[in-house]
Amino acid sequence: MSSLWERPAQELLQAAASGAPTPGGGSTAALTAAFGAALLEMALNITLKKNGEAAAEALRPVLQTLGSLRERLQTLADEDVRAFRAYVQATRLPEGPEQNEALAAAGKASMQTPLQLARTALEALDLAPPLATQVHAEVISDVGAGAAILEGALHAALLTVDINLPHIPEEEREGLKAERDMLEARGRDRAAQTLRQTRERLPG
């Protein structure tokens, strides 16, 4: 399977709008989240250029962390497509123990990939509130935009978690629901903090 990232943007957009099952909500959320993280990186890179060494010591480690998170989000876009395709393949197997085992494995992967996406998006969002006070004034809106995009992607990922919960053994659902609710609440809080601080620094 070729990577979603190797496809032209226009082709990718048309695929998302078509009747094809992929890219779906999870992989599109991962694509979007990667761009949200990239906007935070851009704001940092421009700040480092404008503020020089005065900003470097504090901001370079954050920049490196964001780069790693973005790369992980990029990987998760393709992982989501693979998880869905594995589930479709499992449904086509003859009924019996082999299919049951394949469906269980595919169902778990379909849950874990968007869950990991939500966790990673939240890690990036955790970095956003301080950045709203640290970046150069000319790129403050990009920090707010990045946080807003990451929050939207996080919610989209959690919807994918929600639709896959029924496929998870009942004894595992309570813990997953608790983590899902924590990710949603914390992501909303971090995004709200960032947007509030962004607006406070916007001119006028």
Automatic annotation (TrEMBL):
Transmembrane segments: none
Domain Cyclodeaminase/cyclohydrolase: 9-173
InterPro entries: Cyclodeamin/CycHdrlase (IPR007044), Formintransfe-cycloase-like_sf (IPR036178)
Residue ranges, annotated region (Disordered): 185-204
Gene3D superfamilies: Formiminotetrahydrofolate cyclodeaminase monomer, up-and-down helical bundle
Domain of life according to the entry: Bacteria
Pfam family, one: FTCD_C
Chain segments annotated as coiled-coil in the UniProt record: none
Secretion signal span: none
Protein name: Methenyltetrahydrofolate cyclohydrolase
Source organism (scientific name): Deinococcus carri
Phylogenetic placement of the source organism: Bacteria, Thermotogati, Deinococcota, Deinococci, Deinococcales
